[in-house]
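#random but structural
TW: two for the price of one
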Amino acid sequence: MAVQLPTSAQVESVAAELGLSLSKEDVASFQGLMKGYVDAYNIVDRLPDPLPRVKYPRTPGHRPAPEENPMGAWYVKSTIAGAPEGRLAGKTFAAKDNVMVAGVPMMNGAATLEGYVPEVDATIVTRLLDAGATCLGKATCEYFCLSGGSHTSMPGPVHNPMKQGWSAGGSSSGSAALVVSGEVDMAIGGDQGGSIRMPAAYSGCVGMKGTHGLVPYTGVMPIEIYVDHTGPMTRSVADNALFLEVMAGPDGYDSRQIGCAVDAYTEALDKGAKGLKIAVVKEGFDRPDSEPGVDAKVRAAAKRLEALGAEISEVSIPWHTLGAAIWAPIGLEGLTQTMMLGDGYGTSRQDLYVTSLMDFHRGWRKRADELSETLKLTMLFGAYADRMYGKRFYGKAINLSYQLRAAYDAVLADHDMLLMPTVPMVATKLPEPGASREDICARAFEMLGNTSPFDISHHPSLSLPCGLSDGLPVGLMLTGRFWGEKALYQAAHAFESAGDWKGF
């Protein structure tokens, strides 16, 4: 992709975009001065791109027919056998379709990315394969991951594994459905506003959003560096802890991994809940959109943990009610600048940049009308805010996120974890074909209130099922101290071991 010296017209056009008034003489002068830059860019172009080696053979796989994909949860099926031995030997997994698997198509739920095939494996894919797991393919996800429902993906909606026609949650919609249905032992999820924990709650599985940076994001298509998380979704707490042990830790690329501290999470299993101090957060319940059946199940779950020996107390964290509002400028402006205008990565950090994705993703600009209604909404407002007010609200929201973090930390100084519903409601009915934009967006964003604050506070947060309401799963969310995933697994495993959650 050789770089050419810009023409006079191109210099004039760029100058106009930047608000510069150039004379013909200025244009000619700048053209001459740019020749050295053009030479430098072409040196970079000719040098080989030092990408990680792909270790395990695979084929592109195939798009499954409806009869082998009744929930719409698979994007591509492709079997990749990992190492012959390892801690995950005999285990299977699916990668959310924003996770790169070399040689296998990736569209991240978006029509504008269809046809892209990455040439690298995400770090976590390599780690899982190195540990002996077998990849079975790519799980459907929401359109560029911009939905907490399961109805915006271009391949089609993902159905709740417990009730056809109802949402599986999102954006890791296919990941949750494949895990709950038993088609895989684990699926990789991604969480920027709750997209691991929300589908775990809606569908009935265990989902862990670790401390920000615990699991390397390298090779996963970013939304916004400050909120990007990836992690495991499983049917059991024990499997979740095992998979996290394999996935976690620095990889030398991901600039999110500041002060990363890993642990032996499986050692927390079977320790019971006795002595754990759990704070029931008042503001996580009785929200305007809370369903009484959900609140009741989660409060009953707290009572079960108390009966198992945990010390339960109710606390008030008023800042929690502000968390989703603080998240908004970071999420909206961040995704607009990084994922979309920044060609999927943006600039100003040291990561592994997969330039083939950047090249392909640029094409959205010529097909913007094909973007999902949820992405159009978030981009329109993100671009409007930037045009009218600059970056000040993004910056102020980042500053406020430290106060939000401090409010949680003040309670966590005396407690091991916080407890509240993952989402305030059970799964909703999928919007009908031809549904209004208002309905599409409502079903996509209505459930973020309890989950999104922890994407900007960066605390580890786990969702596990704690019963049924109206025949659909209820999610219990436990949130801990930085690098405190082990305590969350201890409490979650104690609850899970006390009895089948479906009968709770």
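TW: number two ↓
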Amino acid sequence: MAVRKTVQVVPRARRTLTSLRNLGYDLRHAVADIVDNSVSAGATTVHVTVHFDGTRSWIRISDNGRGMNAERLTEAFRYGSEREYDRTELGRFGFGLKSASTSQCRRVTVVSRADTLGAALEARQLDLDHIDQVDKWEIFDLAPDELPEPTRSLLDGASGTVVLWEGLDRVLRLKDPFGGWAKRQLITHAGDIDEHLGMVFHRFLAGEVADREPLRITVNGTLVESWDPFCRSEPSTSALQEEDVEVHSLGGSGIVHLSPFVLPNQNHFSSQAAWKRASGPKSWNRQQGFYIYRADRLIQSGGWCRLRAVDEHAKLARISLEFFPELDSAFGVNVAKASVTLPEELRKELTPLVKSWGRVADAVYRQKQRPPSPPPRRTKPSGVPSAQPVPTERRSTDGRSPSLEHVSGSRPTTSAPALVNQRDLGATSLVPEAAPLSARQALEAAAARVGESEALTRITSALRTTFPEIAHDLGW
């Protein structure tokens, strides 16, 4: 048989890199992908810093993991880089570092020191402006005196890795990058990153991953808190029967483990603060459904994967679905590790289970609510002139007395101050209302009165993302 002639066709660096910048990352998922590498390198501490300085703004992720020698660091910048992965490693595709970084910035610098005796500090830099000029797959090998200032002195004598993003063209899409609006936008991004990492890595942060020390992550110096979607610390949370389903794929067979939970209804939570925190980043209705974990790392938070519609009466149902990387092909995990598709054989097994879990959640949702307390009888306190109406204690629709932040009503008169119950503030007596309401307080009070607090939460979240200047003016 004749040997066919082959011709090597090397991708154009400039156009290929432009395309690879659009693999579906947003900033939160991009940072999480870098933290994946830190976790895989055995890091116990990861620091995320978001720094505003106009066009010189930067984002830095540093860890105390095993680090990389010169050869491994150079290979890490190769698209489709190959190495052996452990079964529990969060990486897999050989694209994460490059694609996650360039999806947000035009220049990424990685500085690393391996955890071997006498290991040297190594640094490499990928600069999209340089590749645009030369149209070649080239990176810079940086000498110690060429390191960008934010990467210096972080690894003095210790192993670990520092990833620095500069030229944040996908983060700060602004004509005026030095303005107050740009700074507030970056601060908002930092808050979103904190919230996302607390959810995605909550098992690592809480020390629930076998054979690992608890992970510690900070964002701008603030410790990231673990967010448990299943509220297992709440006494009234119901853990339903767990299930194991075997799934087959081209990459091999594996077990999918299901742990369903039904959260308490609002009146059975330990506190209103706990109820509010349990609502999650996307609020109650959009947080119901499946929480899909790949090697203990959360990929999908909520949603029913087209097995049923989102339903107010099922919002208390949350199901942990776990698999390991040998089932990546079956679940269609994408490079950004931000979405999955349920295998058809698993969908068939899940259909009757979802109906069963939904019925339990509906029953808990419909548990009898506490009846609202009757309004206090109007009486005339001593010392109040008869011509002045006596205010009554105002209550929200669930019968609880609101805190000062949520009280609605007209401005009090000087002779008869409005009375506000301070139960939520830890007091037991009635005190004068201190000041007129802000626009935010009035909107929250109005939403609570008509039972649309959750809708307002979703609206304000969208407002902060789409019109942050207006959201700031309103107090969000």
